[in-house]
Model the fold of this input.
Amino acid sequence: MAKNAKVHYVDNKRLYDDMVTFITAYRIADKAGTAKPRIPEYVGECILKIAQRLSLRPNFIGYTYRDEMVGDGIENVLTYIHNYDPEKYNNPFAYFTQIIYFAFLRRMDKEKKQTYIKHKMLEQSSLMNLLADMPGGESNEDGHSVTVMVNVDGRLNDLVNKFEKKNVKSKKKRGVEKFADDDGDPPFIDPHPDDEAKESA
Done:
């Protein structure tokens, strides 16, 4: 007896047929200027299932904002669903998955930026409180200046460093910055290059 074929959680054939019906109705309504049709129920179920299943992958499952990622994915698919062209592509499952995947990445970037901002604010407020509470100002009993270090979690520190490096790389150098050395100083240009040659002659 032959083994039963494994049933996928999304029936791509049925999803494609429903998308053909929906896109055809959408285009007719768009040309006529009438109200757009509702997304078929099965298409909506598939979008939800794809987003939830994708969020369970190892590279997404550990985040505390996984529900927000799923919500962003669904919202993005609903925003761009009318762009699907059934005449060119017969795999709506892949189309939805790709949109949801990139929505997840955007949410991760947003959350990392928020974590960075919160960390920097907390770091600055902690530093200000320590300096304000320090008796005798910024010097210790020997008269030497005191350096206040704020301890942070290693992973958070790593996130902050990666975020700052990414922002430095993304900033495009313009004008004078193009000619600056690695240390940030502009290269030395001798205003009178011939003077030295005259003195040595």
